[in-house]
Write a structure and sequence with these properties.
This protein is of the alpha+beta class and 158 residues long. It is built from 6 helices and 4 strands. The protein has a domain of 71 residues: EF-hand (Recoverin, domain 1), CATH 1.10.238.10. The strands form 2 sheets. It has a two-stranded antiparallel ribbon with strand order 1-2. Helix 1 crosses helix 4 and helix 3 packs across helix 6.
Length: 158
């Protein structure tokens, strides 16, 4: 339960995508323009074009429908700026914030800071020392005295 709350909080505190509203011009002159909300840095999806039926009177053939084109990020940098939603992606995105000595592992102090920040940001009271000790021991599956990214992902996913 606590791990689920931490994961939910991790998702909520990771970088949020900024949405912008654009207006898609109407393809039919009688229909109004369609407002669309897309994450910043993306190209909005192109709507599908309906099929045109054959007209036996004029001899024109039917035109098949054109499928919609999905929205895509405008650049690679903007694609990378879109926050991840999976546990591994979120941990990777926020790892540098907490691995302050850049040794690719969280010490007990770094792990404690991370968990405390998550809980207090969520409006919960700061975790107790016994909770933090237990969480660290559980997350440090290989008992190395530090928590690696894969260990943290596994801890938050279980």
């Amino acid at each position: 339960m606590i791990k689920q709350a931490l994961f939910g909080l991790l998702v909520a505190t990771s970088t949020a995508a900024v949405a912008q509203t654009t207006t898609q011009p109407a393809t039919d002159p009688l229909s109004p323009a369609v407002p669309m909300t897309t994450p910043s840095g993306t190209t909005p999806a192109t709507p599908a074009t309906p099929a045109t039926p054959a007209d036996p009177a004029t001899g024109t053939a039917a035109t098949p429908a054109t499928p919609a084109t999905p929205a895509t990020p405008a650049t690679q940098a903007e694609a990378e700026a879109t926050p991840p939603t999976d546990t591994a992606g979120i941990v990777a995105a926020d790892w540098a914030t907490y691995d302050t000595n850049k040794n690719k592992a969280l010490s007990r102090t770094e792990f404690t800071k991370w968990v405390t920040t998550l809980q207090t940001t969520a409006g919960q009271k700061a975790p107790t020392k016994s909770y933090l000790d237990g969480a660290f021991k559980t997350a440090d599956a290989d008992k190395s005295g530090s928590v690696s990214q894969p260990e943290l992902v596994k801890f938050l996913s279980s």
